[in-house]
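U., I forgot to send this yesterday:
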Amino acid sequence: MLRRRESVPFAFVAEADRFRSNVTPPPPVRPSVSEVVGRTLIGLTVVAGLVGSLLFGLPALDPAQGPGVTQKSEAADGR
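Result:
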């Protein structure tokens, strides 16, 4: 058998719309000059690392340049 639930009064929801707090949140803290400089240096270091790895890695990925001079061990010369 289906049981019908009682209706819930939603007066508290309407009352919550009218509620206003008199407590203001604290103002946001502004970073100091040293924090901004530190974050900038960290960002530049990360970007420089990515650019450097790209510059060093691209020649190795170039398909037009085949294997260069193959290295031969000196032990193989004496045989």
